[in-house]
Amino acid sequence: MERIDKILASQGNLSRREVKEIIKKGRVHINGVVVTDSAVKIDAEKDAVLLDGVQITLKKHIYIMLNKPQGVVSASESETDKTVVDLVPDSLYRKGLFPAGRLDKDTTGFVLITDDGDFAHRILSPKNHIFKTYLARLSHSLSENDISLISSGITLADGTTLKEAKLEIVEAGDTPLVKIMICEGKYHQVKRMFAAAGNKVVSLHRSKMGGLALDTALKPGECREITPSELEKITE
Ligand code: URA
Fold first, then answer.
1. Between the CA atoms of 75, 214, 187 and 62, what dihedral angle is there, to the nearest 10 degrees?
2. Distance 185 CA to ligand 1 centre (A)
């Protein structure tokens, strides 16, 4: 059981003070009864909470899928750039949102935005082997040797080790499109893996996290909530 004002303030964009005002004005009903006392405790799992007559689905955490466009940074705040969190609409916004893993400013595709630190840690830790799938357009063709070099993992000149990757050629040719799956997320990892083979990533798009593909209906810059069954697909 937790205070109604604390629970409501954790759900959205409203401060605790604003929530208290709303409650005082009689705009909140719990199980059909109006409440004007912010200190009332409720069970977020069981009690029906209505704001202005509309039932609120109380959730401990939120998980959002964003199709990140180029030019946006994977951060919660930035003084200079638009961030992935800036793209979250008011209807999904709540305090404490952050991207679970970073894509470079020029990388596009699937960014998971959440306020659940434990979940983020779970899907990002290389120990859990949750593969992130990228589509990379390269500047040069890829030889069998390059593929086995990148697939088996690389130690860079500065001593950085990059774990093994799964590679698949989607479009062969002079500027191939390659699907690459990695389970760690070191700085510029995919770009550095191809650079180690003397190649260059011209464009990079994340298409999948674990078993969950980016919803192709989402245009660049659009996002939507991830359903509970989709969330399971990430870790399965
Ligand atoms: N690897 C990169 O080089 N860049 C990204 O944005 C993601 C993975």
1. 40
2. 8
